[in-house]
Amino acid sequence: MGIRDLLTETTVRVPVLGRTKPSVLRELVDMLAAHGRISDAQGAYNALMAREEQGSTGLQAGIAVPHCKCGAVSGLTVAAGVSPQGVEFDSLDGKPARVFFLIIAAPHQTAAHLEALSEIARLARQEGFIEALAASLSPKDFIARFAS
């Protein structure tokens, strides 16, 4: 099952309202919790922040992939968001992140967690794909860009 298969209009936020790393993470976690995808929003948020303390999940070219494993989910759970103006995320290239893929896996799902990270890395290498996602005007538009 690919990232596209895990995203729905209720798990994509365009635009994210948060202007800081913690507020973006909180917003995406709360969105997942509001739609029944997370049983413990605070536990998931804490696990994501603990992971960020180990090293930023801000990559390059405007993408961040905050991720963790925790018991707040029973299966691989993904959310996405777009910040047109970008958010400082301590990215490798020093540039703000505009596209976010938040991944939470259950503690026993190491393989699925790694597959999801690998798929996002492949997508990020596709010429113009992250820029296209960043230009999305709605969750539906964001999801549709996976098909083109």
| Overall pLDDT level | 94
Q: Count of helical segments?
A: 6
Poorly predicted ranges (pLDDT <50, ≥5 residues)?
none
Number of strands: 5
Radius of gyration: 14 Å
CATH homologous superfamily assignment: Mannitol-specific EII, Chain A
Taken in chain order, the helices and strands follow as HEHHEEEEHHH
**Biggest sheet overview:** 5 strands, mixed
Number of domains: 1
Describe the structure.
The protein has 148 residues and is an alpha/beta fold. It contains six helices and five strands; from the N terminus they run αβααββββααα. Strands 1, 2, 3, 4 and 5 form a five-stranded mixed beta sheet that branches. Helix 2 runs antiparallel to helix 3. The two termini are 18 Å apart.
Tell me the layout of helices and strands:
Elements: H1 3-6, E1 12-13, H2 21-34, H3 41-54, E2 63-64, E3 67-69, E4 77-87, E5 97-105, H4 110-125, H5 129-134, H6 139-144
Parallel strand pairs: 1-4, 2-5, 3-5
Antiparallel strand pairs: 4-5
